[in-house]
Amino acid sequence: MSITVNIYYSGKNGAARKFAEEMTTSGNVAAIRDEEGNLQYEYFYPMEDTETVLLIDSWENQDAIDAHHRTPMMQKIIELRDKYDLHMKVFRFVSDDVPQADSSFIRK
After folding, report:
1. Is the dihedral of CA 38, 58, 43, 66 positive or negative?
2. Is the full-model pTM beyond 0.85?
């Protein structure tokens, strides 16, 4: 059962996008993706809110998330979040199999 965390980073004057860009260009994103148990780590930009960035962060289980939180990478993330004065909304989701009744609505 995987866990997906959606983190909405919000700031002012493009700070959230600058944060995501620095996370990517610095190699932090690649390093997180290489961590054991990471399934997805991607930033997205909401069309109607230019001051927010969505991070979709997915892990195999809670142990993998806990291990990630103990890495030095977390301090780098915190420092960058503070540098750009970002605020967060966080939503967690636990995976579930797609019910058979829903599968007819999914185009592959």
Report:
1. negative
2. yes
